[in-house]
Amino acid sequence: MNGKTAEILEDAIQRHEKFWSTVEETYAEAVAQGSQLVQLLKSVDLDDAPSKEQMGKLTRAHKHLLCLWKERRVRLHSMLALIAFRTDTQLVVEWLEQHGDPYLTKNTSIGETVEQARTLQRNHSHFRQIARNTYSNANKLFEASKAILESGVCDAEKMRAMIGDLDQRVQHFTHRVESRFNLLNQSVLFHTHYHEIMAWYDEMEKKYAERVVDSEVEACERSKEQWLYESDGTAQAYATTIGEGTQLVRELEAHSQHTGIDYNSNIACINRLIRNIESRNSKLSSIWNPQRVLLQIGLRFAVFVRDNCEVLSQIRSWEEDMRGMLESSTFAGNAEKVLPFHQDNTAQVKMAVKNIRKCAQEVLQSIHGNGFSDLRTRQGKSVTDLIRENLKILEVAEHQVMQYAAETSYRIEGSRKLGRIRNVVREIVAVFDREERALQVMSTVPVDLEQALRAQEAHEMFIKRIELNNMDSVRVFYELSNELIREGSTDRSAVVELNEMVTGRWRRLSGLAEERNKLLKAAIVCYKTYLTGVYPILDQLEKDYSQNPDRDWCAVRVGETPQERVNVISELLSKHMDYKDRFLKGCIYAQKTSELFLKYIERTSSGTGVHNRHDSERIMRMKSDLRERQSKILELWTKKKKQLDRCQQFVLMDATRHVLVDWLCGEGERRLNEFLGKGVADAATLEDFHTFKLAVKEERAKIQTLLCMAGPIRDEAKQHAADIADCMDDVRLRFEKFSRRVAECETILRGGKPIPKDDLSLDRLSDPNVEENMNIMKREQNKKMREPMHELIKSERDYIEDLRKCIEVYIAEFDSAEANSTLPTILKDRRKAIFGNYEKLYAFHSEKFFHELSKYEDDPEEVGCSFTVWVDYLNELYTDYCVNMEQNNHVVALPEVMSFFESIREKHGLEQNNSLHSMRIKPVQRCTRYKLLMEQLLKHCSNVEEIR
C-alpha cells in the first residue's frame, strides 16, 4: 500500500460517514411521519395496528443497517491503521539506524572531570529523552499491531515477523543507551565525590592546622562530637569514594569487553584519582590522634573553666548567703543550727578549691607534655595564661571568702553567746512579768488613810523584794552584754536592743512600782489633808462661825481702854482674815492633792475600769463635798467679818471720841482756865487766845467729821446703833458746853464786850446739805457697785435659760431622731462631738453656781468667794467644752448637719440668734463675760481682795 491507497481509504471513510448521516435523516423523517399517522388514526378511532407493524419493521431494518455500517467502518479504519503502522515502523527503524546507533558509537567517553562527566551526562540524558519518544512510538506500534491482527486485514505471519524484528532492534538500542547512562551516572558520582572529598580534606587540614580550643564545656563536647562525626564521616566518605572508583573501573573494563570500546584512558584517569584520594586520606589520618588529644585537653580546660566559674559563683553565693544570714533578723536565733552547716560549707569550699587546683595542674601537665604550649582559645587567648589567671582569681576569692567565713564563724559564735544572753533575758523578762502581775494584784486604790498606809508598807516590802531578787540577775546580764559588745562578735544593735529591753522592762517595772508609790503617797497626802488637815479645820470653823451669830465682839471688858479695844478688834479681824487665808490655802491644797490623786488613779492601769471609775467618782464626791463646805464656811466667814467690821467701826469711833473728849477735858480745859485767871487781857494775851481758838476750831472740824461719818454707820448698824448715837450726843454736848465757856472766856478777856457771832458752833461754816449729799454719794456708789452684780446674776440666769433651751430643743431632737433612726448618717455617733459636756454645764450653773452668785447679790465685794470655790471645776468644764468645740467645728459646718439643725430651729419657731451655732458659742462667750463683769466690780468696790 502506498500513500495514494491511504488517501483512497480516507475518502471512502468520509463517504461512509456521510452515507450514515443520510440514513439517519431518512429514518428520522420516516419515524416522524409514522408517529403522526398513529396520532391521526387515534384521533379518528381507526385501528393503528398496521401502522405500528410498519414502524417496527422500519426500526428493525434501521438496526440491522447500523450493524452492517459499523462493521464496514471498522474494516476501513483497520485498513487505514495497517498502512499507518507500516509507515511508522519504517520511520522507527530508520531513526535507529541513522541516528541512535551512530550517536552511541560516536560518544563513548565518560569524562575525566566532574564538569565533563556532568556535561556528558546532561547530553546523554537529552539523547535518552529523545530515545524515549522512539520507545513510546514503538510501544504504540506494538499495541496497534494487536488491533490490526485482530481485524484480519493483513498477513498475520508477516506482521508478527515485522513486530519481532522491531522489538529486537529497540531492546538492543535501549540496552546500549541505559548502559552508557549508568556509566555516566557512576562517573558523575565518582567525580563529584572526588571533588567533595578533596575539598573536605582541604577543609579538615586547614581546620586542624590551628591549635585552638573552646572555653565552654558544651562547645568542647560539640567539638569532640564534631570531630568524631568528621573522622567517621571522612572514613565513610573515603571508603565510599574508593568503592565507587573501583566499581567504575570494573564497569568500564566489563563494558569494554562486551562492546569493544576502548576505555583505557578513562580507566587510567580513574586510577590516578583513586591514588590521590588514598594519599590525602593517609595525610589526614596522621593528624587525627593529635587532634583527639588536643580536644581532650580542650575539654578538660573547659571543665576547669566551668568548675572554676561554678566554684567562684558558689563562693560568691556563699558569701552572699553569709552576708544575708548575718543581716537576717533570725540570724541570732538560728546560730546554733547554722554553725554545723557553715562548717560543712567551709570544708566543701576548701575541697572544691583544692580539686580545681589539681585539675588545673593536670591540664597544664597535659599541655606541656603533648607540646601544646601555644594552645589558644578561639578568642586568641593563651590557655596556660587563662588557667593561671583563673587560679589567681580563685585564690583571691578563696582568701576573701575564707576571711569572711572566719568573720562569720566569729559572728556565729557571738550570736551563740547572744542566744545564751537572750535566754537570760527571757528569764529576766519572765521574772519581770511575774513581778508586774504581782504588782497588778496589789494595785488597788486605797479608800482611806489606814488602808493607804498599809498598802504603802506592803509596797515598800515589794520594792525591797524585787530589788533583792532581780538586781543580781540584771547585773550579770549587763556584765555579759558589755563583754559581748567589747568583743564586737555580734550585732551591737541586737545587744543594745536586749540591753534596752531589759533596761526598759526594769524601768517599766520600776516605773509601775514608782507609779504605785506615787499613787499611795498621793492617797496618803490626800487622805491626811482631808482627814487631819482640812476636815478638822472645816468642822472647827463651821462650829465657831455657827455659834453666837450675834455676838458683840467689842463688848467692854473691865480695865480695857478704847484704844485697847481697837487693838483687840483689829487683832480679831486680822486673825479672821488669816483664818480665811489658811482655810482657803488648805482647801486649795486639798483640791490639788485630790486632783493629783485622781490623776494617778487614772494613770494606774491596775484593776478593772469599773473599780477605777468607782474610785474616781469617790474622790470627785470628796472634792464636791469640800467645795460645798468651803462655800458654806465662806458664807459664815463673811457674816462674821461683817460683824467684826461693824465692831471695828464702832470702837474706832469710840476711840476717836475719847481722844477728842480727852483734849477738851484736858489740854482745852487747862488752857481755858489759864485764860480765865488773867482777867482783862492785853494784846499779847488776845493773840495767844486767838491761837487757842484756832486749835479749838481744829478740834471742832474733827468732831464734825466724826459726826458726819457716824451718821451713816449708825443708820446701817443694828448691834451698835444706840451706842453710836450716845457717842455722837456725848461728843456734841461736851463740845457745845466747851464752846460756850470759850465764848464766855473771850468776853471776859475783851473787857465785857459782846462777841458779834458764835464762831465755834458745830453748825457754823457747815452746809446743811452735806450729810444729805454724802448719803446721795453713798447711794450712787452702792448703785454702781451693785449694777455689775445685778448684771452678773441676770446674765447668769439668762445663760442658764439658753443652756436649758438648747438641751430641750436641739439635744432632745437629736436624741429623738437617733432613737427613731431618722438621724442623718453623718451625725451618727456624733452627739459628743457636737454638744460636748453641754448638759454638765447646765447642771453646774443651774444647781450650783447660780445659787453661789445669788448669795452675794447684796454683798458684791465678796462675790469672789464663789469663783474661789469653783474655779478649778469651772476650768475643767470649760476647757473640756472649748477643746471639743474647736476640734469639731467642721462637723457643724457640713451642709447636711446645718440643714438638719436649721429644720429643728424652724420647727420650734426659734429666732436666728437661737441657732445651733449661737447656742454652741454661748459657753465660750460666757467665759469672757465673767472677766468683764469682774473688772466692772473692781472699778466700784473698795474691798476688792476677793474679786482679785
From TrEMBL:
<dbReference type="GO" id="GO:0005737">
    <property type="term" value="C:cytoplasm"/>
</dbReference>
<dbReference type="GO" id="GO:0005085">
    <property type="term" value="F:guanyl-nucleotide exchange factor activity"/>
</dbReference>
<keyword id="KW-0344">Guanine-nucleotide releasing factor</keyword>
<protein>
    <submittedName>
        <fullName>CRAL-TRIO domain-containing protein</fullName>
    </submittedName>
</protein>
<dbReference type="Pfam" id="PF00621">
    <property type="entry name" value="RhoGEF"/>
</dbReference>
<dbReference type="GO" id="GO:0019898">
    <property type="term" value="C:extrinsic component of membrane"/>
</dbReference>
<dbReference type="InterPro" id="IPR035899">
    <property type="entry name" value="DBL_dom_sf"/>
</dbReference>
<dbReference type="InterPro" id="IPR051336">
    <property type="entry name" value="RhoGEF_Guanine_NuclExch_SF"/>
</dbReference>
<dbReference type="InterPro" id="IPR000219">
    <property type="entry name" value="DH_dom"/>
</dbReference>
<feature type="domain" description="DH">
    <location>
        <begin position="784"/>
        <end position="948"/>
    </location>
</feature>
<dbReference type="InterPro" id="IPR018159">
    <property type="entry name" value="Spectrin/alpha-actinin"/>
</dbReference>
